[in-house]
Structures are given as C-alpha cells and as structure tokens.
Amino acid sequence: MDAVSFVESLELHEGSPMPMRMMESFKSTLAEKKKAKAFVDAGSLVSFTENLSGQNKEDVLNSTLLAQLAASKKHDRQTDSANWYKFYTDVLMKIGWVTQQFQFSKYHSHTGSFEMSTVVLDILLSLVGDGEQTLVDVVKATLESFKKSGGDTIKLFDHNCVSGQQGNFQIIPCTVDKKSGQVVVKFVGAYFKATKVDSRFLFFTYSNSQVDLEKAADSLTLNEKIYSKVRQAIIDKLGGKAQTFVDGLDI
Length: 251
Hints:
Layout: H1 3-9, H2 23-31, E1 37-41, E2 44-48, H3 54-74, H4 81-94, E3 97-99, E4 105-106, E5 113-115, H5 116-127, H6 133-148, H7 152-161, E6 162-163, E7 166-176, E8 183-194, E9 205-207, E10 211-222, H8 224-238, H9 241-244, E11 246-249
Helix pairs in contact: 1-8, 2-3, 3-4, 3-8, 5-6
C-alpha cells in the first residue's frame, strides 16, 4: 500500500476537540517568521524554533495529530499505551518521519520525588547534541507558558492526555537542520499511572511510590520528498480537526 492509500485508509478517533477556530488566524500564526512558537496539539506540546517556515509548522502539527487520532482509534491511549505508541510511530514512519530508536523504559528518580516537567527536560538534555541548546530553551519557554495558561488550552491537553489515573503525552521540540534543510525533532514520549492525576499533572510533584512512569526519547527527521506526496491527503483526512485540536501558546 502506498503512503497516500495508507492515509486514506486510516480511521480517526473523534477525541476531545475544542470549539472551531478561524483558519485565517491559525494560518497567519503559523506563518510568523523569526519567532519561536508553541502549540497544544491534542495530547502533545509542540515547540518550534524561529528557523521553521509556516509550512514546516503546519506539516508537524498535522502529521503528529494524524498519528495521535489514528492510534487512538486502534488502541486506548491511556490503558493500552504501549500498543498505542507502536501504531503512532508506525503512522509517522509511513508518512515520511524517519526514526532512530524508540524504546520505553521505566523512569526512576534518584531523589525520591520528581516533577514531570523536570523529567522531560532531563530526558531532553540527554538527547540533544552540540548546538541544539535552542531546543531545550524553547521547551522551557513552552512549559512555562503552558503552566500559566488556563481555560480551553488546559482542557484541550488534559482531555486528550488523561483518563482516570492514567496519562499519555508527548513533548515535541522542532527545528531545521542547517545542512539538509529538513525538519528535525527531539521527541520525548511518556505514559504513566499515578495515585493522583489532574490538569496540572506536568507540574505536580510525585514521589516514586505515587507514580509509575514509562518514558522514551528519539531523534526524528521529516523526509520532505515523502511527506510532500501525502501532505494533501493528510489535510483532507483531518478536515477541520486541525482547527479544533490545536491551540497556540505565547512564548
């Protein structure tokens, strides 16, 4: 099955969208140049350095949203997270994302307690190389902005990440490789079960006995030659979902 046929064959979970936004405003936000941007994209926090074009940003948001909604149609996001991630990454690879390795391992805190946002940054720091500090900085700014946000923004992320005492979320900082011109991502994925979960779970301090956290990190690259062939099929498949599952953050 070719990539376009694969996209057309996917069934998407309805999820928990927010009210429709104006596409013109959304497009203009994506098109802003020389400014870092961040978005809640269903159950992902997506950050962009100033180096990405409006098309780059739209491609990342659309492709990762498609993968989330397709995986959630196949597997329960919170109660069957391991299989959810397998299908999620399978979708990404078939539409043009190249991955290196994506394996989950249990997170152990050496201090006895931890905040999930701090864990995310620690994982990210272990993944980035020389010259990639900007990705860490943009994630820090995204988390700080998200911490201060409220209303629909929190609801959108919360409703798509958490169910009962379980959660599943992604942190996706993006930039452009200077040599190849391709979009590159330092991807952090996690799922957990905790004694307490609320809309501010990223900033709640957990003891080791309160939460069971599985985490994974990977470097991803978007192959433009492959993605350009499925771009319109993905837009068609998502329909209005790109407007209802995505909300901007000021960073």
